[in-house]
């Protein structure tokens, strides 16, 4: 019963951004039908999270390449922030890691294993995704968090909620974890929904994380809390962040600057600023 649901929600969790997001979601469901386990795919071992992109190219249609010759190694445990103008291909590149799409050329591997050598379920089971818009079910807070790992105990759910800084919210609700969040979570604020997504990821405890940082306006206090929760979440995990704000970028071990489907620059904040290139222009 849960497996198809899990698949759909893994997809929904990734991309919904209003109507455009919904369209993408439908596209992804179609894509899903095409991406299947290779006949000789094996269940992935417990991954450390060394992610290697080798000369990766991709286009949603054959006439327009969206990623062109991307090569990059992300070490296990490293946090890499992807920045660049809108449409540069950041989201697309990271969508290839859980195999929502297949590259047209080149290859991606984790710990030396090509992505398609592993079964989809075992690969996606080791990738946590926290995106801008979280898909919530019209049920209780508990079930929404537990969705990160079906079958988690109440203690585990509470621990994950606390790490995601949901403790005060839950304590203030008369029905605590049993509170209904409303259809698609309408009773929760944007910041609270993001914290539910973070709690799910804590519960899932994956070696690899993909964060699509929120662009929506949050008040400063909330933003600081979410930032702190995300930092705690990314500790000890390979973290790939689509970053929109300088704060997050500064915390990254490395910044990768993309433009027009290509990697243009990589380095740390100060190094890139002093290079005086695209990053320096974006940051000014
Ligand atoms: P942003 O910062 O605005 O999210 P981005 O760098 O993440 O941008 P992508 O979302 O990866 O960029 O988009 C790269 C290109 O691919 C854009 O030209 C975009 O219009 C196109 N694109 C993205 N998703 C799809 C899709 N599902 N079908 C067709 N084209 C798409």
From TrEMBL:
Keywords from the named record: ATP-binding, Membrane, Nucleotide-binding, Transmembrane, Transmembrane helix, Transport
GO terms, molecular function: ABC-type oligopeptide transporter activity; ATP binding; ATP hydrolysis activity
Domain of life: Bacteria
Keyword Calcium attached: no
Primary location: membrane
GO CC terms: plasma membrane
Compartments in which it is found: Cell membrane
Residues annotated as domain ABC transporter: 51-284
Entry membrane topology: Multi-pass membrane protein
Protein name: ATP-binding cassette subfamily B protein
Taxonomic lineage of the native organism: Bacteria, Pseudomonadati, Pseudomonadota, Alphaproteobacteria, Rhodobacterales
Part of the intact protein present: 283 to 566 of 566
